[in-house]
Design goal:
By secondary structure, this protein is α+β, with helices and mostly antiparallel strands. The protein contains five helices and eight strands. Helix 3 runs antiparallel to helix 4. The mean pLDDT is 85.
Length: 190
């Protein structure tokens, strides 16, 4: 950070810390104990697909990596209406550690291939007994999490989101700027 940045009150954003994803299984235990939210076994990584052979090679490598071995992870690739690509992983709901490991592998592969700037977010899905979805969203560029609780009609359950923020403050680095709690309407896996 330079002198002018300090003088004008600009701050550097926190660098991404993909290892923060490994705190999600602990947060899932907290959610299950404090609420009736349980992991769905579905998670997704959102990124802006780049053009060119190098990017398509990494996409293929990631899909091959997740589809290897005896524990093949079902993976879906889709594109949303805004042109973002979503790679969705499915695991048994009781295997949140495996899901998080696969999501970390996707993010790490894209980052190691030089495509870190194209990474937007990672979402791990939860539901309560009534079927209310909740996503724990990891903002790659901020290195923080926030809860997103969509409701029908592109509305949000703000009370639930704030409740979850309070419950997970010790488990995850929660995004303090509520203006950055972006809605991810129609996110695959939610």
């Amino acid at each position: 950070m330079g002198f002018l940045d300090a003088l004008l009150g600009r701050t550097k954003p926190a660098p991404p810390n993909l290892d923060a994803l490994f705190a999600v299984p602990s947060a899932a235990i907290t959610l299950q104990a404090a609420t009736d939210l349980t992991a769905t076994g579905t998670g997704s990584v959102c990124f802006r697909a780049a053009e060119g052979r190098a990017f398509s090679d990494i996409e293929e490598d990631v899909q091959a990596l997740l589809g290897m071995g005896d524990n093949k992870t079902p993976v879906q690739v889709s594109e949303d209406k805004y042109g973002f690509t979503w790679l969705v992983c499915h695991h048994d709901p009781n295997d949140i550690e495996g899901l998080v490991t696969d999501l970390h592998a996707v993010n790490s592969s894209l980052e190691a291939g030089g495509f870190g700037p194209q990474l937007l977010c990672t979402i791990v899905g939860f539901r309560n007994r009534a079927g209310q979805p909740l996503g724990l969203v990891y903002l790659y560029k901020r290195g923080t999490f926030y809860p997103f609780a969509p409701q029908p009609g592109e509305r949000r359950d703000n009370a639930l989101e704030l409740q979850i923020r309070g419950q997970l403050g010790d488990d995850l680095k929660i995004e303090s700027d509520l203006g950055r709690w972006f809605p991810v309407w129609g996110a695959p896996g939610l």
